[in-house]
Amino acid sequence: MPPQPKPVLTEGEGLHGAARVRAVTAIALAVLLALLDYAIANVALPTIAADIHVSPAASVWIVNAYQLASVVSLLPMAALGTRIGFAWLCQIGLALLTVASLFCAMSHSLLMLSLARAVQGVGGACIMSVSIALIRFIYPHAIIGRGIALNGLMVALGVGGGPTVASIILSFATWPWLFLINIPLGATALVLALVSLPRTPVSPGSFDGVSAVLNVVAFGALIMAGDSVAHHAGAAQVAGLLVAGIAAGVLLVRRQHGQTHPMFPIDMLRIPAFRIGTLVGFVAFVASNLFMISFPFTLQSMLHYPPATVGLLMTPWPVGIMAVSPLISRLSDRVPAAILSSVGLFMTSMGFLALYLLPPDPGWFNIAWRIMLAGMGFGIFQPPNNRVMMVTAPPGRSGGASGMVQIARQCGQATGAMCVAMAFGLIAHGAERDCLGFGAVVAMTGALCSATRLIWRPATR
């Protein structure tokens, strides 16, 4: 007999037993691969920049190309996922990531590498735009916080563990192997996704291509305008990009107004808990990238650690997140995000401040405990904040909510990267250290924004 098609799940029903374990494992591997592909190049930026003969400021585009392509694709991919199925879109993303990794490894110029990284970014957007939406179908509603915490752990391990993986690879091989290693991992994740991910309901209607184009222009032009400022481009270029981005954004909002399932979720942004969660997520990831991108330069250029050691010294970040993950996965369903997320970002701010105040010649332990404190705080912040955004989304809007969780993250990361590039361009000496101080201020701002939820609605969870 031919295999029977998988039944279509409804939100809140969830899978059980081995089926849930397999599906969650598939999602976890996909998310981890997507984020490793983003973060694995961070530590190697100085090495890659020297090898392909570009400046440190220009090398940030190796990160930004992935980030820009991913950001402009997230909401269109989330909308597409609601029409073709979340599982299928995740599988397409894994295939794109795997193929693009080969082209990254074969690149010998900044342009070629950036283009290959952009394709990786689209693949990552396919995965990340639907990852939390799939979790909303895999886990019963009563314990959805555990699934979101696991997703947050994978995000943190991907971003924070990328430097460690990069250091291990660079200890034995050249930088192209940072991307070649993705090929067997991507193929494994794709096979598991094909056999394990559940079918989800699909929305009727055609894909809104005009809104997708407006979304790409709006986010792309605004991000490029910020990057142009960071790299001291001419005023005419910056103004043109700003005008194009704002105009496309206005047209997008006007086109989306009144739609039942808008690509840009203006309906959900009217919900206070969702709106504050989006803002807090954005601010938190600005702070995290101020640290993640600048600190490898601090370790290598100012403290004179070799590239292979730099990633190992960044390991306490994911270790700190892993240390708090089991507790937070249970607390996030019980304790309001206004408390947990605020405490977490306060700890992250204190960790960044402690790094800013490092003595001139610190030992590895002095560095490690500060990074671990910041990582533990970030691990406390993220799952409760994401849970609020998902559970406040109306029925049938899982895709849009999942997309906005990732928009907040990736716009924050892109903004953080631009701030690092701007600091490198404006400050002749000590830019790396100044980025840490700014990161501490931004993280504290996020903590205060999160705490406002206690004032306007103490019962919001």
Question: What does this entry look like structurally?
Answer:
- Its main location: membrane.
- Pfam families: MFS_1.
- The chain is mainly α.
- The protein folds into 2 domains: 379 residues, MFS general substrate transporter like domains (Growth Hormone, Chain: A, Up-down Bundle), CATH 1.20.1250.20; 52 residues.
- The chain is globular, with a radius of gyration of 21 Å.
- The chain starts with 16 loop residues before the first helix and ends in a 5-residue tail after the last helix.
- The N terminus is likely disordered.
Comma- or semicolon-separated keywords:
mainly alpha; Growth Hormone, Chain: A; 2 domains; 79% helix
Brief summary:
Helix content is 79%, strand content 0%. It is mainly α and 461 residues long.
CA-to-CA gap between the ends?
A: 48 Å
Principal-axes geometry comes out as globular
- Output the radius of gyration: 21 Å
CATH domain class name of the largest domain: Mainly Alpha
Q: Give the number of DSSP strands.
A: 0
Would you tell me the structural class of the helices and strands?
A: mainly alpha
- Weakly predicted, low-confidence segments: 1-5
What is the annotated CATH architecture of the largest domain?
A: Up-down Bundle
Question: What is the domain total for the residues?
Answer: 2
Q: Percent range for helical residues?
A: over 70%
CATH homologous superfamily label of the largest domain: MFS general substrate transporter like domains
Report the order of strands and helices. Answer: HHHHHHHHHHHHHHHHHH
Largest sheet: none
Please report the number of helical segments.
18
Mean pLDDT value: 82
Strand content: under 5%
Main location: membrane
InterPro entries: MFS (IPR011701), MFS_dom (IPR020846), MFS_trans_sf (IPR036259)
Protein name: MFS transporter
Keywords: Membrane, Transmembrane, Transmembrane helix, Transport
